[in-house]
Hints:
Low-confidence stretches: none
Structural class: mainly alpha
Distance between the termini: 110 Å
Helix content: 40-55%
Radius of gyration: 31 Å
Order of helices and strands: HEHHEHEHHHEHHHHHHEEH
Mean pLDDT: 91
Oligomer: single chain
Largest sheet: 2 strands, antiparallel
Number of helices: 14
Amino acid sequence: MKNKKKIIGIIIGVIIVIAVGAYFYYQNGISAVSSNDEEVIVDIEEGTSASGILDVLDNAGLVNDKLCGKIFLKLNTYDNLQANSYVLNKNMSLKEIFDVIQNPTQEYINSTKLTIIEGSTISDNATVFAEILGISEDEVIEQWADTDFLNSLIEEYWFLDESILDSDIYYPLEGYLYPKTYYIDNISLNLEDMTRVVLDMMDEMLSPYQDQIEETGWSVHESLTFCSVVEKESGTDESDRSMIAGVFKNRLDSDMLLQSDITVNYAWQRTGVDVSISQTQIDSKYNTYKYTGLPIGPICCVPISTIESCLNYSEHDYYYFFAQIDPDDSSSTIVVYSKTYEEHQEKVQEAKDNDLWLS
């Protein structure tokens, strides 16, 4: 009997030793392959299974023991693993890695930074896209003008319509690329996907204002056109944007020419503020010295703050404005408003007499 108990004790002891050994073997097998900080870029393709991802990780040198990895996947459920290009590290455990792939954060995404600046134009942004993609600006512009591509976008996004296909429009997507800093996943780094990322953001930002835009009686294209003129004509002060929007709305409602210098500059595809009398004669539907109403399309991209200012423009009796040096702070400017042309001319002359005129 004693021998039997002894044998049973030995067997139990052996089982415990094996179990403990197996536990530590398993824990070591799913632990980080190194304590050193060493980044590894791993591409997980769409539709790759959990076991397939384990193979990818193993080939990348991120798995201590593949058998333990398979056991780990049997013991844990990962049903939403995301395809992407990841920046992982050899000091990450298998659990940490799979948790990242299940719920990716920007920290671990292998991405490229794309910045679209408020008030920038298609020409500006073609340069940015081209540099990232390693192609020419002309290739970007050509793709953004491709009729088949544009029609596919019109079908996909509610805020795009056939207005952008008008032959008098310089760049069909002008005004529709939302200004923001983006981190583009390198696994899908191509012009069409990058363009859709930016348009998706426009969709997200603009959708809450869809009803309010409809209430203006303007199409989205017309609204963005109006907003783009205000964006270029105003500074960073929200009160200036809403006031200037009010000036332009007054002029439109009175069938007056907008006479916006920045629309003339856009017609010439030039930068700057001042325009000459001869430049205002350009026969372009962007030229608001020659054509009444809004320009034929947006002249830059606009942030949601400008869109809000324009939708909620200030109601007043001003029809004219100009920017001058702030007499109390020569490093800044102020906007001066007038109700009549005579009053406007007087204030312009006053600014020139006091060396406050912006030349």
